[in-house]
Write a structure and sequence with these properties.
4% strand, Butyryl-CoA Dehydrogenase, subunit A, domain 3, 493 residues, globular, homodimer, two-stranded antiparallel sheet
Chain lengths: 493, 493
């Protein structure tokens, strides 16, 4: 069949029409993109307040005027964390659930009170309310903590530090900052008010980077999405001379490297009340542990899972309700993993279950070691006889605490967590082997006392809990209102 | 500008030419696909030999005539495994590297000889040559192993079983099968000769599936790509009455479930020569451990990493040079993981390093427990005094062996490996606590003997190695050639 010019012309027209339809659709798409861009631009161009008017704006609700979505989700941190199968109710009394920890921390404030951490919105109320900060001013009580304890609790900290320097902030009684530190963890803790860029506001991480030849100002955006978390969720210590907050990273960021650092500077957080062992208290080395696990190794950032992106109209933003990724699996795990919610949840639960299993062994053996050591001292043991056992207790408890205090590490770095716990068990039992010899040499019997509940354990280590709680109530009812009044008068609150 | 019909016609022609060019390219592609299909078809249609002519064709080279690519790569298993940073030279004498294992296996054949497994091509030569099979017939020596020991070494096993049944195969002296089992692990072990489908040829796995209500005939292709490996690379035991090979899965496939099974049937592989502890010898539970790790949980099969697909001309086939995936990262790990070879290798090495670290602790503490127990017996300890300690040794050694014998488990299931080792350490040290009490009660001193080399450790447990080695040489030079002659005469070889 031979085509006529007419037929060819018809074919041309059909193709032309199809092309035009496609171009029209592209036009619609372009219009939609432009509209979205306009919405984004309007957010940045029509800011309601100038956040950079003061050196550090610590009022979170002021930031909320400019960034309502982030602010609304941030406020939702008040609602408490996701209820995991292994991490119970809203205010979870860990000491009630695991009385062994009362014994392990005998002689340290954590034996009084330890509830599982809640959302950022609760930071100030928790700091004031915990028995760990004591009741300065009540019945003539003095401070038991330095100003350093406030460091990670509020955007008032960078505000105060900008005006007075960090050294002054740290080296004063905790209560003398009560009227200064009043807003819970919020915007200025992680953002630069002028550019809204992520910014590390606390000195310790920056200083540790400098000492180890790393330049934090060269951190990428993806690195900052972890580093703003790492500035607080990490192992630290207070330099004894001036309570200056330090990160112990000079020899590396593993449990062994940090122990070597502490051993070298002969640092000890407290001498154990029963065993007299010189104890290192691990302080949530979450970031260091995370770095060693699969997600950390593959360049995932804290915010990727704990602050997933949300979309509202033309706007994509980070969810500031920082919480367990298991509560929002479709926007967290499932952005990379294609398995079902149930499968993914159960994978995490199994890592947590295994973590609980072995840590329970470590805790129990370390508790037994402390109590055996106490019995040795009572039987007249000498320091020379006890030296090796106390070293084992220190090493074992450091490892147990390091793994457990790295909240989430049984999932973040499951093999590393188990490796560390295996050494905690090793050292706890090696201490017992030494202590058993000392007990027998002194002809002393050892029977485990009944420390099977929080109340029994606290009574055993000599804590007067009713008084501590009564005083805390009075402190909250009398001192704290004065702090708030003062803060309002000074225009801080 | 108004278009003329002539111009419209030109546009039509251009579009028409573009379409024709595209269609021509599609044609070329289709031709290439047809050609590939023809090449695949020619392989299956032009088979040179009929492999189904006998019930089980155990001659691997006959299969090789029909499937040359698979056969060529299978022959490459003779070249030995990839030299990993942590898994050294070709014939790796594990006892030389870790003399602790000599002590742990005192009273069991593994204390004589244990070299790291080599490729499938070596199966028969290794079985004949290892000191673990003894030297039946030399100087009047009897068999020390039953026929069962050959079970996973050769396609002659399904051939023999098809003719005589498995019960007869198992329940006879090892040496009486010497002239029957002559071809190394090969084609008929995993393939149906008629269909070339993957097929489980050994009874134990099928029987275990049946007992636990699973139907192995319903396994998917992807499951079979693990199950044909699992039929051998898995924990087993010989039923004491008739040496029937069994998989101990009736209560589950975890280290605790299998221990519970053995405890219930009061099974013991051997009584330890020094400590008298009733020991369970773990036999490479590779599949069970793999199932609990990330790759197993995500449905990856053994063959995905150990038998990657290769492409030659139009043919895609499985590489039968089964070995460490680290030797071929681009076709193994990198089919899913986008990271560099170096990054992936180092991730594996770190898991292996951590695994070696904690297993070394477990081994050392279990060795110490055995030697302390020996000292207790020598000091006159009673069975009642020793009971608890020996139970701890049994539990600890089972866990250590289970983790370590699951070749690759420090990578396949890193957290589970570490969890298990942590309990091995726990029980090893708890045994020592009990034994220390017994020693002191009997006024006995304990000093670690020098068992720091393979030779010293083997001398300590009373092995006459020069004689064993001399006899093995004679056995290999006199008995084995007769086996081969017989096999040739019978048309088996």
């Amino acid at each position: 069949m031979q085509e006529t010019p007419k037929k060819k012309s018809a074919l041309g027209w059909i193709l032309c029409l199809i092309s035009m339809a496609a171009v029209f659709c592209l036009g619609l798409l372009a219009a939609s993109i432009t509209e979205r861009k306009a919405e984004v631009a309007s957010i940045y161009n029509n800011k309601k307040v100038d956040l950079a008017a003061v050196p550090v704006e610590s009022k979170n609700d002021k930031w909320g005027l400019n960034y309502p979505r982030e602010f609304e989700t941030w406020k939702m941190t008040a609602k408490g964390d996701f209820k995991s199968k292994y991490h119970g109710n809203q205010i979870q009394d860990v000491l009630e659930e695991r009385p062994d920890m009362v014994i392990l921390w005998a002689g340290y404030a954590f034996s009084r009170d330890y509830t599982a951490p809640r959302g950022h919105m609760h930071a100030i109320e928790e700091m004031r309310g915990t028995l760990r900060t004591g009741n300065p001013g009540i019945g003539g009580a003095k401070d038991m903590q330095p100003g350093t304890c406030w460091t990670c609790k509020s955007p008032d900290v960078p505000r105060y530090m900008a005006a007075n320097g960090p050294a002054k902030f740290y080296n004063q009684p905790w209560s003398s900052l009560g009227a200064e530190i009043v807003h819970p963890i919020g915007c200025a803790d992680c953002h630069d008010a002028k550019t809204m860029n992520l910014a590390v506001s606390r000195p310790a991480l920056k200083e540790a980077f400098e000492r180890t030849g790393r330049d934090i100002s060269k951190a990428t955006q993806q690195e900052l999405r972890s580093l703003v978390c790492a500035q607080c969720h990490e192992e630290y210590y207070f330099r004894p001379a001036d309570k200056y907050l330090m990160f112990p990273f000079d020899k590396g960021q593993t449990v062994e490297a940090i122990e070597a650092y502490f051993d070298e500077i002969k640092f000890t957080d407290y001498v154990h009340k029963l065993s007299k062992a010189p104890i290192l208290k691990a302080q949530h080395p979450g970031w260091s542990m995370f770095l060693l696990g699969p997600h950390g190794q593959h360049g995932v950032a804290c915010a990727d899972c704990h602050m997933p992106y949300k979309s509202e109209g033309g706007i994509k933003y980070s969810d500031h309700q920082i919480m367990s990724p298991l509560a929002k699996i479709s926007s967290t795990c499932q952005t990379c993993h294609r398995e079902s919610e149930e499968f993914l949840k159960n994978r995490v639960y199994e890592y947590q279950r295994a973590g609980f299993e072995t840590r329970t062994v470590a805790e129990h053996e370390l508790v037994k070691a402390h109590l055996m050591a106490e019995a040795c001292w009572k039987a007249g043991a000498t320091e020379a006889e006890m030296e090796q056992a106390l070293k084992f207790i220190r090493s074992g408890q450091w490892r147990w605490d390091y793994a457990v205090a790295s909240h989430g590490a049984s999932f973040h770095a499951p093999a590393e967590y188990q490796r560390i716990i295996s050494h905690a068990i090793e050292f706890g039992l090696k201490a017992q082997l030494e202590l058993q010899k000392v007990l027998i040499a002194h002809n002393a019997d050892f029977h485990m006392p009944d420390v099977s509940t929080k109340a029994k354990a606290q009574a055993y280590i000599g804590l007067d809990m009713p008084k501590l709680e009564k005083d805390k109530k009075e402190f909250l009812n009398t001192i704290v209102p004065k702090w708030e009044e003062q803060a309002k008068k000074a225009g801080i609150l």
